[in-house]
Design a protein that fits this description.
The chain is α+β, with helices and mostly antiparallel strands. The chain has 13 helices and 30 strands. The N terminus is likely disordered. This is Probable periplasmic serine endoprotease DegP-like.
Length: 526
């Protein structure tokens, strides 16, 4: 997927001060919205809460063959009581006054000029010039929705991150303080809780995997602090990835603006299929490209936050990369799908017998299409669970039983070591590269672990296939054809074997600053 420019990618939250709307103004807008829902609808919402039933169950789906609903009014009236406005308050330090402005040395003519005009504080050393600013209270606005009658509320993590106080304003105008139960910055999800004497109207999650491109959706929230607002659109795309490891966004053209962050995206059945999170915009306003984190991701995170107050994702313990068409050809695979294992450090996968060079094609009975699908599948699996993992090897498929660890416990940098002026052993040109054998002295000079073997890339012909594949001086080739390479003769033998087998490419494993990666290098006869 094409990477979206961070210059135009904005979270859909808002500071009240930035839109010229104070908190009082937001409250007036909220008061005006209460007339949008009839007393009868409010009563039905409360009765559903008393019976612990989610709102929206009586939503009428569009008739067969109907292009679009006649109106969204009935749906809005049913689910609106579960949508909330969120106001957060935090004490923030003001930047140094005068920061970024001109700096004048003491005794300069400008220093005297400030004094002559009665502004001694603006001179060097004055509290108004380069001095620390006083802390101030900052208010921010966002949206959320109730998911249980006992007061659990879902919103975005960035809405409440760093907040000292969180206030929830319900559709009825009631305001209650909220506490943070847990957050997950990786998916930008936060779970809040309020204490209410009466059961609260709530909505339920739907299956985001059932959403199709072109389906009608409804976004509710508090855009720009204006109070409750509804906008409609369609699902423009699915499975969008922005910047996170677990990203699975629904793209929609329903208007999402600052302040909509954390608000729900409904399908026509009144189910939440997404949490409005970000927009792509050159000017900060909606241009019809909004992103909602898919409900299947959010609901899994929320369940863990409810149970543990934190996420507990499964951990397989491998480094992986996508299988490219030329890599598939080099391996003799029928299709370029699956996840190629580039390294197996100590962990669950290694204990189960997984090896570098394995291609994971199935995880816990589900097909693995690429690395992204594998990461999500593993993260959704609970720690301690034993799952079947099918790997493709040169001798055929093999099923391994892996007992998953916990990702949060295992995460931590292993600090790959760089190269600094390695010694240059005798070298030979091969496949567009000048290669040298790694000796103990070379390994020491390069900062490689003791016992490292392989070939070091000394030079790369800029017009070669190796350069096009991204190989660079300092890279270390440790495997070729899924067999260890300790000398140039080993590499030559692997090249000959690939040619004799009629393969166009040879799969090589390189390490750059400790990080492994497979590449397929063309081996056509010279």
């Amino acid at each position: 997927m094409k990477t979206l420019s961070p210059r135009y990618l904005l979270t859909a939250s808002a500071l009240a001060v930035t839109v010229g709307l104070g908190i009082a103004g937001a409250q007036e807008a909220q008061q005006a919205q209460q007339d949008d829902v009839s007393p009868e609808a409010s009563q039905r919402a409360q009765e559903a809460a008393n019976n612990n039933e989610p709102l929206g169950q009586s939503a009428e789906p569009a008739a067969p063959g109907q292009v679009m609903p006649d109106s969204f009014a009935n749906l809005v009236e049913q689910v609106a009581p579960a949508v909330v406005n969120i106001t957060t308050t935090a004490v923030v330090s003001q930047p140094t006054r005068g920061e970024g402005g001109p700096m004048f040395p003491e005794g300069s003519p400008f220093s005297d000029l400030f004094r002559d005009f009665g502004m001694p504080d603006m001179g060097p050393g004055g509290p108004g010039f380069g001095g620390p600013g006083m802390p101030q209270r900052s208010n921010a606005l966002g949206s959320g929705f109730v998911i249980s009658a006992d007061g659990f509320i879902v919103t975005n993590n960035h809405v409440i991150d760093g907040a000292d106080e969180i206030e929830i304003e319900f559709y009825s105008g009631t305001k209650l303080p909220a506490e943070v139960i847990g957050t997950d910055p990786n998916t930008d999800v936060a779970l809040l809780k309020v204490k209410s004497d009466d059961p609260l109207p709530f909505v339920q999650f739907g299956d985001s995997d059932d959403a199709r491109v072109g389906d009608w959706v409804l976004a509710l929230g508090n855009p720009l602090g204006q109070g409750f607002s509804a906008s409609s659109g369609i699902v423009s795309a699915r499975n969008r990835e922005l910047s996170g490891t677990y990203d699975d966004y629904l793209q929609t053209d329903a208007a999402i603006n600052r302040g909509n962050s954390g608000g729900p995206l409904f399908n026509l059945n009144g189910e939440v299929i997404g949490v409005n999170t970000a927009i792509l915009s050159p000017n900060g306003g909606s241009i019809g490209i909004g992103f909602s984190m898919a409900s299947n991701v959010v609901s899994s995170v929320v369940n863990q936050l409810q149970e543990f107050g934190e996420t507990r994702r499964g951990w397989l313990g491998v480094k992986i990369q996508d299988v490219t068409p030329d890599m598939a050809e080099a391996l003799g695979l029928a299709a370029n799908s699956g996840a190629m294992v580039t390294d197996v450090p100590d962990g669950p996968a290694k204990d189960a017998g997984m090896r570098s060079g394995d291609v994971i094609t199935s995880f816990d009975g589900n097909e693995v299409k690429d690395t992204r699908s594998l990461v999500r599948r593993v993260a959704e699996a609970p720690e301690g669970e034993t799952v079947e993992v099918v790997v493709q090897r040169t001798e055929g498929p093999e099923t391994l039983e892996v007992t998953l660890g916990r990702r949060e416990t295992a995460e931590g940098g292993d600090g790959g070591q760089g190269t600094e002026g390695p010694a240059q052993p005798s070298a030979e040109e091969l496949l567009g590269m000048k290669l040298g054998q790694i000796t103990p002295e070379v390994a020491s000079d390069m900062g490689l672990p003791n016992g490292t073997t392989g070939l070091v890339v000394q030079e790369v012909n800029p017009e070669s296939d190796a350069a096009e594949k991204g190989l660079a001086p300092g890279d270390v080739i440790t495997e070729a054809g899924q067999q260890p390479v300790t000398s140039i003769d080993d590499l030559k033998a692997r090249i000959d074997e690939a040619r004799e087998a009629g393969r166009k490419s040879l799969l090589v494993l390189i390490r750059r600053e400790g990080e492994p990666r497979f590449l397929a290098l063309p081996v056509a006869d010279s």
